[in-house]
Amino acid sequence: MITPLQNVPAKLAALFIAIAAVTPAHAQEQVAIPGLNLPVAASAQAAQQPAPAPQVEQAKEEPKKRLVLVENAVGEIPAVPASVMSRPATPSKPVETRQDVIVASGTNTLIPISRSQINRLVTPFENPNIQTVSAAEISTSGNVIYVTTENEQPVTMFVTPEDDESVAISLTLLPQNIPPIQANLILGQAVPGAAGAAMPAMGSKAYSGTARKWERSQPYMDTLRSLMRELAMGSMPRGYSFGALSSGDTIPACAQPAISYDFSKSQLIQGHDFRVYVAVAENVSAKTVEFDHGACSHPNRAAVSSWPHEILEPGQKTEVFVITRVPKVIADTSVRPSLLD
Fold first, then answer.
1. Element of type H or E holding 66
2. Widest CA span of the chain, in angstroms?
3. Domain coordinates of the chain in residue numbers?
4. CATH topology of domain 98-187
5. Cis amide prior to 308 (ω within 30 degrees)
6. CA-based angle 138:141:145, to the nearest 5?
7. What digits encode the pLDDT tens for the residues 46-97?
8. Which pTM was predicted?
C-alpha cells in the first residue's frame, strides 16, 4: 500500500512536515508554493516585512520643532506688588539688661524695671529681709530678690540683712515697657571718677557681715592671697565695697628712690577685717627699677603687692595694693571729770 506522501517528492514532503509543525491554527494568509497551497504563520510574515522606524527618535525630534524663541520676555512679566513679596526678617539687636547699681544705707535709689515681666535684684546680703507695702509679687532666693508687677505704680521697699537691722537699702523700682532686668546692688560708694555717683564719707555705716563670712572661711594667709588675686583680676570678694578717703584718715606711706607714688586718686576697698588701699606707682627714672614691697608702711599693714608689674621700665606704671587690718573699735565709755581740775 502506498501512503499519500509517497506520491510527493522527498524535498516537498520534508517542507510540508516542517511547515505543519510551526503553523498556528489562526494563520491568516496563504503562500503559493509550486504544487502546494499551505498556510504560513503570521509571525513568519512579520519577520519578512521591514521593521518600522522606532518611535522614540520621533518623540525626541518633536520637542525641537516646538521650541519658540521669545525676545524681551522679562519685560512682558507683570510686576508683583511689594506687599505680596515676603521680606526677610531683620535680626534683632541684643538688649543689655544687666545693671550695676551703687547703693548706700540711708539713700534711696531709683531703678527701672520691666512691667509684666520678672525682674532680678542681686543684693550684697546673704539672706535679705524685705519691708514693703506694694502689691507687687516679691520673692527671695538666697541673696536674690525677684519682683513682678502689672501696675505702673512704683514699687518701694527697704532691704536689710538678716542679722543687722541698722543697715537698710532703700529702693524705688519704676515699672516700664522694657525687657526684664537684672540689677546687681553694690553696697558702698562708687569708684572715684565714676559719673553720676556720690561717695559717702568713711564714717558712713557699711554692712560687712558677708565679708566677714568670706574672710573667716579660710586661713589668714589664704584670705590675704585670695583678696590680692580678686582685686588684681578686677573684681571684689562678696561683701566688700568701695569707700572714700576723708580728712584725718591714715593712708599708707610709700617711699622708694626712682618711683613716684600717687594716692590722690587712690581707691579704698572695705571689708570686715581688712581694708585695701590701691594707688599708682610710676618709674620716674631713666633705668629699670624693681618694686620694693617694704617701701610701703602703715600702722596696721597686713600685706603689700603690685600688679601687673613688679619690675618697672622707665616711665612705666603699676598698681600698688596695701592691705591693712581694721582695728577693733573700743566701746564708748563715759568720762569722769577729775576733782583735781
1. helix 55-66
2. 188
3. 98-187, 209-325
4. Immunoglobulin-like (2.60.40)
5. yes
6. 40
7. 445 555 555 545 545 555 555 555 555 555 666 667 666 666 655 566 667 8
8. 0.47
